[in-house]
Design a protein that fits this description.
21 strands; single chain; globular; eight-stranded antiparallel barrel; mainly beta
Length: 325
């Protein structure tokens, strides 16, 4: 799915002229992506992605060239999140947004939502460290472009080499998923939604011979606007993301790229948006798994009151999951 985005991205001239701080703009809610836009070309080179202290990390730049975020640092003492290599996000600092985070937690998720504290572009992120803090995942997007614009996803190993013990042939991981949905609506401009859900990943380290097998799914998907208000009309629409069977790189205990497909009640042919997922194992004995998911295509954003049918436009969903065995 990785490709070069030749189309010009477009960024907000209103924010650029005012020098405004997007953290003070408020959480806008659904259907407010009508900002003025100017040209901003895609970079021709992207710096190398960061590597964890115990092995390679996984980034969305492996999947899409405009997912330029290439490093994430989290300060547990202050709650500050630092995302590197996103243009016009100010000083790279992101702060937790209380409203959306509380909405996630009310719905049973441990993910938090974040916004950049400075800069002329508005970026929206989701972040979570794993239960044992062996890994963390981040996903970020923006509504300042008429294309999907810049963003990113990261799964980072914080501790251990991720090696699974061979005492068992197979393992099951259960955990959580969250994502940022960037919506390209020809009527209202670009918009942001969030989605949370549950994740299950199954692993067989003995078959296929020498390469193993990993597969899974994202389910129980719940949708929110960018202020954290539930979008109940989308319940039962995109019900599940299938994570296609992938191989294991036993040299560094990462999960090679494989297909991701959205299934749900709104898809008359069974399959909606499609894309790619990949991941890694973390912890001294592979106790946890973390990964990124990127899918794009026609997707539902609400209900048309005139027809009662789903409104479908171009959507890119950039997410991450963590799980424990």
């Amino acid at each position: 799915m990785k490709r070069y985005i030749a189309a010009l991205a477009l960024t907000s001239v209103l924010a650029a002229c005012s020098g405004g701080n997007p953290a003070n703009d408020g959480e806008d809610g659904i259907g407010t992506g009508t900002q003025p836009l100017v040209d901003e070309p895609m970079p021709t080179t992207v710096p190398d992605e960061g590597g964890g202290t115990t092995g390679p990390d996984v980034y969305g730049g492996d999947i899409e060239d405009d997912l330029t975020m290439n490093d994430v640092q989290f300060d547990a003492a202050t709650g500050e999140l630092v995302l590197n290599n996103l243009p016009f996000d100010g000083n790279n600092s992101y702060a937790r947004t209380a409203g959306a985070s509380a909405a996630f937690q009310t719905a049973g998720s441990s993910f938090d939502a974040y916004r950049n504290t400075e800069g002329t572009n508005r970026y929206y992120a989701v972040f979570r460290q794993s239960d044992q803090a062996y890994a963390q995942v981040t996903a970020v997007g923006t509504d300042n472009y008429v294309t999907f614009g810049f963003g990113g996803a990261a799964a980072q190993r914080l501790s251990g080499d991720g090696a699974l013990p061979d005492s068992n042939q197979s393992y099951i991981y259960d955990g959580e998923y969250a994502a940022v949905r960037t919506i390209i609506d020809p009527d209202t401009g670009s918009e942001i939604q969030y989605v949370i859900g549950t994740a299950r990943v199954r692993v067989d380290i003995q078959d296929f011979d020498d390469i193993g097998a990993v597969e899974g799914f994202i389910a129980n998907r719940t949708f929110f606007d960018n202020a954290g208000i539930p979008i109940n009309d989308l319940n039962g629409s995109d019900e599940r993301i299938s994570l296609g069977t992938a191989q294991i790189n036993f040299d560094n205990w990462t999960i090679e790229s494989s297909t991701a497909s959205v299934y749900g009640g709104n898809n008359t042919n069974g399959v909606g948006a499609t894309g790619t997922w990949e991941g890694l194992f973390a912890g001294p004995n592979g106790e946890e798994v973390a990964g990124v998911v990127v899918v794009e295509g026609n997707g539902p954003i609400g209900i048309d009151p005139a027809t009662g049918e789903y409104i479908e436009v171009q959507v890119r969903e950039v997410g991450g999951f963590v799980g424990s065995r």
